[in-house]
Write a structure and sequence with these properties.
The structure holds two protein chains of two kinds. Chain A is built from four helices and five strands, in the order ααβαββαββ. By secondary structure, chain A is an alpha/beta fold. Classes of the chains: A alpha/beta, B mainly alpha.
Chain lengths: 140, 439
């Protein structure tokens, strides 16, 4: 045992085996058995792309705050991710956060009833409601 | 068709220029692959951003290839002395296949990559591919700041040209590029390390969990790591007065600059290492000449297109006030120690490296003094620590999201340098023993 511990080969192999085992366990055992399948990022927004041809910039509204000020700590991860999914799908159309003055606005809400309340008060008509809480709107 | 011709022209120029350096074919192949991808990407971006006709760039690359092919290449390098142990080679092959299988599994399961891949890199690639001439909107301040409109365009450019090559957007393009960049980094480490340590170095790299994580999530940190290790390997391989190798080192260091903002730091550190090692203006000139095309591309991009970086905008004075803050230092030390033992990301590799450095230091002698190149990752980590301390955001959050990826950018170069030191130490110890026994 003492001979083994004095050999650097032993420690080197240990480091490599542990690393390889971590990779193999996580990717070849845990993920195939336990990880939930991931839908394509932003696929829910794909039906909107034909409606936005020719638009360079549209508004983006939501019922959750986003991290929009680089001077403040990041604390709205989930809402940021929802914006990122939409922007990834709809590029090169700019999604201008909180801009309600654009002719077209993407309302990407977390809760459907919040979107309904927004529609009842704001001056928009629904062009395409792709999900209960997500719709492309046009200013009246 | 034009993207296909662009790929061929980029390859031809890379092959012709890199055949002029004094290196084995096995070492040159991953360098040619990296250079091809860099030229392919940059040419596509130059076409979109600056309106340069792709045919003109392809013709230029083909002309360079023609001239390079006609130039006299150096004599074939002598085979390296030393022995390879076959069992380490077999272990490396098994571990490399395992790492590739793990990476492919994750890429297959999550074809859009990790968060930064679709928030930054593949988003910008789609913008390049879809918007073409009206690409300027990608830098609009209306897009939320954390999509980092100021980041350079090496990876998005390569992905967008890949889309153009196959005639449409496919998640296979960024996935294949991620694999190619990672494989190139590994191949450079293996081929640039001294013969007796090359398979050990490769084994250490391919069993690093973070290599698989960042490759499988299509982060730009792996391309940056590949370009950095290529630059470091070229500097290590440079013989006195070999200005072609230094120009190649400059070119690869400048590709770091065009990949991520922190590449600017790495470029400067490699340049300083060249200045300290060579101590000649001609050497510095050769390095800068190799770097010039990508530096000009970055300069134009930063001056004309990219919005100001949010770290730079926060001001140097305010940053200097934050640096001495003891609570920031305490957080930096605490989280650094935590990441050293972060098993999910690093396994035991960082602890193993620290043990190696301590033992190596204890047993080293004058003949194995560290070179200027050895200090590149050390100085980079020191500079990054200052950036962490001085940046305006909450330091715990910043370390959480950047520590592992920044260290991974340096990791292949660290392994290559450690392998080179260890092999040199063994050689010098053997020479010293032989010298003693002769007398």
């Amino acid at each position: 045992m003492k001979w083994l511990l004095e050999r650097w080969h032993f420690w080197f192999v240990l480091v490599c085996v542990v690393g390889a085992f971590r990779n193999a366990y996580f990717h070849l055992a845990y993920e195939p058995l336990r990880a939930a399948p991931s839908p394509r990022i932003g696929s829910e927004f794909e039906p909107l792309r034909p409606l936005l041809v020719g638009s360079e910039r549209i508004g983006y509204v939501t019922d959750q705050p986003l991290d929009a000020d680089p001077a403040l700590p990041r604390e709205h991860g989930w809402a940021d991710l929802r914006y990122a999914h939409a922007q990834y799908a709809l590029a090169p159309v700019i999604l201008a956060y909180a801009d309600q003055s654009s002719a077209l606005v993407l309302a990407n809400f977390e809760h459907a009833d919040a979107l309904d309340r927004y529609l009842s008060t704001a001056a928009f008509t629904v062009i395409f409601r792709i999900a209960p809480a997500t719709a492309l709107l046009r200013r009246r | 068709m034009s993207a296909g011709l662009g790929l061929v022209a980029s390859f031809a120029a890379s092959w012709a220029l890199l055949r002029l350096i004094d290196a084995s074919m096995a070492f040159r192949i991953p360098l040619i692959i990296l250079a091809t991808l860099a030229l392919f990407s940059a040419a596509g971006t130059a076409q979109v951003l600056f309106g340069v006709p792709s045919e003109a760039l392809d013709a230029l690359f083909l002309l360079v290839a023609l001239l390079g092919a006609r130039a006299r290449n150096p004599a074939r390098p002598k085979p390296e002395l030393g022995t390879e142990t076959p069992h380490w080679k077999i272990a490396f092959a098994i571990a490399a296949i395992l790492a590739a299988a793990c990476t492919v599994e994750h890429l297959w399961r999550y074809p859009d990559g990790g968060a930064d891949a679709f928030i930054i890199w593949n988003l910008r690639a789609r913008w390049l591919f879809r918007a073409k001439g009206s690409f300027a909107s990608a830098f609009s301040p209306d897009i939320l700041f954390w999509t980092h409109q100021d980041y350079p365009l090496m990876v998005p450019g390569a992905v967008a040209r890949g889309f153009a090559l196959i005639g449409g957007e496919s998640s296979a393009v960024p996935a294949i590029l991620a694999l190619v960049f990672a494989a190139s980094a590994v191949a450079i480490v293996v081929r640039a390390a001294p013969k007796k340590a090359r398979w050990l170095a490769g084994l250490a790299l391919v069993t690093t969990p973070n290599l698989v994580i960042l490759t499988a999530t299509e982060q730009a940190d792996i391309p940056l790591a590949a370009f950095l290790v290529a630059a470091v390997a070229m500097v290590l391989a440079t013989k006195p007065g070999d200005y072609r190798a230094l120009a190649a080192a400059g070119a690869f260091a400048s590709m770091c600059v065009w990949t991520k903002n922190e590449g600017i730091l790495f470029f400067l550190l490699v340049f300083v290492a060249v200045l300290v090692t060579e101590r000649q203006w001609k050497a510095a000139g050769a390095f800068l000449a190799g770097a010039a095309p990508f530096l000009m591309l970055l300069g134009d991009f930063k001056l004309r297109w990219a919005p100001a970086n949010d770290l730079v905008k926060s001001g140097l004075g305010a940053a200097l006030h934050r640096v001495p803050d003891p609570s920031r230092w305490w957080m930096l030390i605490k989280l650094t120690l935590r990441h050293l033992v972060l098993f999910q990301v690093w396994g035991l590799h960082l602890i193993g490296l620290l043990a190696f450095l301590v033992l190596f230091r204890r047993n080293s002698n004058q003949m194995t003094r560290w070179t200027a190149c050895d200090y590149v990752p050390v100085a980079a980590l020191g500079a990054l620590a200052l950036v962490w301390l001085g940046q305006p955001y909450e330091i715990g959050f910043m370390l959480q999201v950047t520590f592992d990826r920044l260290l991974m950018q340096l990791w292949p170069a660290i392994i290559l340098l450690a392998a080179s030191r260890a092999a040199n130490r063994d050689s010098s110890t053997a020479a010293a023993c032989k010298h003693a026994s002769d007398h």
